Amino acid sequence: MTAERTGLWGRMPAIVRGIVGGLLVGMIPANVWLIFLVVLKLPVPQAVGAEIVFLALYVWWARGGGPPSRFKAARGDYFRSRALTGADWCWGILAALSFAATIHAAIVLLFRFVPYPASAFHRGYDLSYIPTQQLKYLACIVSALSAGLCEETGFRGYMQRPIEKRHGAVVAIFVSSLLFMLLHLTKGWALIGMVPIVFGAGILLGTLAWASRSLVFGIIGHTIMDIGLFAYWWTQTAGVFTQRPISETGMDQTFYIECGAFAVALIVVLTAIARLKRLNA
Predict the structure, then answer these.
(1) Which tens digit of pLDDT belongs to each residue from 178-228?
(2) CA–CA separation, 173 vs 171, rounded Å?
(3) With contact defined as beta carbons under 8 Å apart, do 47 and 146 qualify?
(4) Considering the chain, what percentage of its residues have pLDDT values greater than 90?
(5) What distance in Å separates the CA atoms of residue 29 and residue 148, rounded to the nearest whole number?
(6) Which of 269, 262, 210 is nearest to 105 (CA)?
(7) How far is CA 232 from CA 63, 97, 141, in A?
(8) In the chain, where are the structural domains located?
């Protein structure tokens, strides 16, 4: 009997074990960056250095390093550690990039149907205390990396993987996506129109992890997506969304281009995921 199946923890239902383990492994480490930056008020370069060291140790532990040694194999399995081929990398990177494009295109389309609630989206993301534009971009990038790495490890690794093994991929992806959505819709930007977008992002990321048998491409896609969210939608570091809903402008050429961009990005990410699944069947 493996170590993960012994003791009180191992006797818990797989769904309960996955949810609890995933939240602990994902959400607590994801907030260490805020401790460095906001609570300890370290200057951005020092906070970045501390966070990079922390994330390196976090990945080492999540992949099976360090204590407890009896869960080493289980941790490696939950992190989906494996060697990746050249074909994996080609289709995985395409999936990651097209995933990020799909989510941002979906957000753009949402705000062509309803007005963009700028004040709600910017609430809690004030970077005015950071002195330069370059350091603001750096803070956005490291925030995205922290969220992408820790959340993918937690939700698509430690939460989804044990449920997959017991109940199959469909149940596991649904559960991890539902928890992913519920945790994120506590934010100020959590208007009703974001519900299908956040849930859909979870479905795509969960399917990508299952199809590729790796967290690497989900981490890359999640990080790229979050760089855009932090730098553009939440902090305006990279600019301001000024388009108006089609109820005011009509279905103009820009709207049709945006619909096309969303459709193409979604088709590409689904195609790439399907190819990864065939490669790793």
Answers:
(1) 999 999 988 888 889 999 999 999 999 999 999 999 999 999 999 999 999
(2) 6
(3) no
(4) 89
(5) 11
(6) 262
(7) 32, 17, 12
(8) 3-279
Contacting residues for 277 by C-beta, under 8 A, at least 6 apart: 210, 211, 212
pLDDT score of 270 more than 60: yes
Q: Which residue has the tokens 């859909």?
A: 200
CA 104 to centroid of chain Cα atoms: 13
CA distance 222 to 245: 27
Write out the two tokens for 249.
Answer: 């402008």
For 61-83, write each residue's pLDDT tens digit. 999 999 999 889 999 999 999 99
Structure tokens at 166: 């017991």
Residue 98 has pLDDT above 90, yes or no: yes
Neighbours of 152 (CB within 10 A): 28
Q: Which two tokens stand for residue 258?
A: 């945006």
